[in-house]
Amino acid sequence: MPSAMVTANMATNEPEVRSNLQTEIDNSPVFYDDNPPQLRLVAVNDQIRRLQTILRDKNSTRSEFVFSADRLIRIVIEESLNLLPYSSKIVQTSCGHPYEGIKFDKGNCGVSIIRSGEAMEQGLRDCCRSIRLGKILIQTDDETNQAKVFYAKLPKDIHRRNVLLMYPILSSGNTAIKAIEILEDHNVPQSSIILLTLFTTPEGLNSVITNHPKVRILSTEVYPVAPVHFGQKYFGTD
Amino acid sequence: MNCMDKGPSNHHKERRLSSRSNSGESDDIIETARIPTSTGRRKRNTSVSEPISVIQTTKRAIYTAGRPPWYNEQGEQKEAFIIGLSGGSASGKTTVAEKIIQALDFPWVVLLSMDSFYKVLTPEQHEIAEQNEYDFDHIDAFDFDLCCETLGNLKQGKKVEIPMYDFTTHARKKNTKTLYGANVVIFEGIMSFVKPELREILDMKVFVDADSDERLARRLRRDITQRGRNLQGVLHQYHKFVKPAFEQFIEPTIQYADIVVPRGGSNEVAIDLIAQHVHTQLEIRNLNFRSQLANAHIGQPLPSTLHVLDNTPQVQGIHTILRDQSTSRDDFVFYSKRLMRLLFEFALSFLPHSDHKVETPQDKVYDGRKFSGTGLCGMSILRAGETMEPALFSVTKDIRLGKILIQTNLETNEPELHYIRVPRKIHEDHVILMDATVATGAAAMMAIRVLLDHDVKEENILLVSLLMAETGVHSVAYAFPRVQIITTAVDKQLDSNYHIIPGLGNFGDRYFGTE
């Protein structure tokens, strides 16, 4: 399912987006014919479906789970890097011929939401060896059910950077919304934020888009049931 | 050169397949067969000899003279040339065979003895054989069906398993010798010409004729001095089995021979003539392979089996770095690995998948997919293809991996096969064939041909490469239309040295730092 690259026109047709989401919810994987422009789905093929299946299967071993999660994370990371700005560049090949290529601009960083977001850090490092990484710890208060920030350490000049915000499972969306708020507190414009997820629920997607309409969201699947066991199983604390 | 017996004998002597296979490990699948050329430096007491063009590593041999293409530009087999050698026991067949091999001065020659195809004996027959009364010189002592099948497959260029006959148990050993990759096969045995279906397979039939007194004298000398048998026993055996067999079965087949060689191995004129004829035949079959590839298919639309990775900004960015001649090796290695990983994730999506429902921890059934093939193997074309192995491992965990070394002969510009090692039972599997770059497609085609010769299904082969030239794509797709071709970019041209333009230089040299 290819999706067009999201560049402009992000906040306009929000009402359509919401109605769209509500009508599409059923028990099978949901692929929107008409995605909200903020959402970019990774082009799904059989291999990606296979990885998703292993991550969903409760009988998967932890080793299979981690291996498949790392593969899927890498795919999402690679896809997210395509959303970053670049400029054209011509180089000479070893055979002495010119090659018209492109060069990615500097000025990006990653921010992971502790703890499951940290599972995606290595994937990012494997692609961008020296990228700066920030961390945010958000916990849900058991009494008020509100997401509360406990810790945030971010690169100093983060307001000038594009931010890859990493959070594998977007369920209610509360944690991600809170994290985006922190970034905004650090003067990061919404349009510089890309939220990287593996799985997202229509509800969480809807919630993030409603609260922060200019944030771009990347995922491999929109499906009503979130694999909320992800962090437990990945880190082996289940 | 002494003449060790190749004919049957009731003595339990050690026999071995006379193929020059370099396999030290019998459980290993593949060995290429080869014989030394015009060195004369050969030990008769082993089945493995040391040709000068072989570099011995700790465990196995690497050939510096490779096997040129044995198929045409359509990927079709050129058949191996099979020389049949017949003649009475102790007539000098082995000597003639060795002289022919020396005179051929040609790599990838296999010597195959009919001794490998003795029938498995029943317990009763085994008893008789123990008492030296079983007739090994009879037509019924050989398994002609298996012999025809094996030789036929060898002629088709297929990988074959040669049985190893155990003369102490009169049964076949559990392990077999794997033979693959002969351009010329010399098949020798006393009954070589007896069956019409076997004669059919032979391209050239040579009968080694020696005077019967001479043969008896040789046999006596050999059996008495070298095997410690007494005169009585040898004569008894000769009169009871060897002589009648010669008269009844062997001698009449002289009429089928193309050439009769009197005086055996000392007849140099005859051996020269045979070698000349084989050379002529091989030249007719040989093709100037690579230039034919490079010039074919110009201007044709790209085939439907070609799948190019989406040209996303990241892919373009990585290509820019890889192609840039000023890129450091550190960056070159790093970014090529990234691209390989993307490529393999893409490639794996072309494997067959089926629906697969799973239970989730959230107590819902999830409609997923799973791999529905039998198995998956990797096969890298050395040297550059090897660089792709880590990336393959990082997406497939415990994949089985084969290797194949193909080098371009700098004089002829032709690809030559030097070494192969193929995972067991590969024929059921899907195979990911890896090479970093594909220019003319000559090496890739050779590798595909090798896989087909190992009974891998054409539609189960995925040729995966970082960069391909259009002509290479065409050549491979034309010869093997069911092979899936998967790459990250296709460049338009090749220069006169068959380098891809604009290309990225010699991938192996830049990756390994040997430029």
TrEMBL record, chain A:
Keyword rRNA processing listed: no
Subcellular location, principal: cytoplasm
Any GO CC annotation of this UniProt entry: cytoplasm
Chain ranges of the Phosphoribosyltransferase domain: 45-222
Cellular localization per UniProt: Cytoplasm; Nucleus
InterPro entries tied to this protein: PRTase-like, PRTase_dom
MF annotations from Gene Ontology: glycosyltransferase activity; GTP binding
Keywords: Cytoplasm, Glycosyltransferase, GTP-binding, Nucleotide-binding, Nucleus, Transferase
Family to which this protein belongs: Belongs to the UPRTase family.
Protein name per UniProt: Uracil phosphoribosyltransferase homolog
Species assigned in the record: Phallusia mammillata
UniProtKB/TrEMBL annotation, chain B:
One GO BP: CTP salvage
CDD domains according to UniProt: PRTases_typeI, UMPK
Ranges in a coiled coil: none
Keyword match Coiled coil: no
Enzyme class, first EC level, given as a word: transferase
Naturally occurring in which organism (per UniProt): Phallusia mammillata
Family: Belongs to the uridine kinase family.
Domain Phosphoribosyltransferase intervals: 311-514
Self-association state and partner proteins as the record states: Interacts with RNF19B.
UniProt domain Phosphoribulokinase/uridine kinase: residue ranges: 82-269
Gene name for this UniProt entry: Uckl1
Source superkingdom: Eukaryota
GO molecular function, one term: ATP binding
Pathway(s): Pyrimidine metabolism; CTP biosynthesis via salvage pathway; CTP from cytidine: step 1/3; Pyrimidine metabolism; UMP biosynthesis via salvage pathway; UMP from uridine: step 1/1
Known catalytic reactions: uridine + ATP = UMP + ADP + H(+); cytidine + ATP = CMP + ADP + H(+)
Cell compartment(s), UniProt: Cytoplasm; Nucleus
Identification of the protein by name: Uridine-cytidine kinase
Function description: May contribute to UTP accumulation needed for blast transformation and proliferation.
Keywords associated with the record: ATP-binding, Cytoplasm, Kinase, Nucleotide-binding, Nucleus, Phosphoprotein, Transferase, Ubl conjugation
InterPro entries, A to Z: P-loop_NTPase, PRK/URK, PRTase-like, PRTase_dom, Uridine_kinase-like
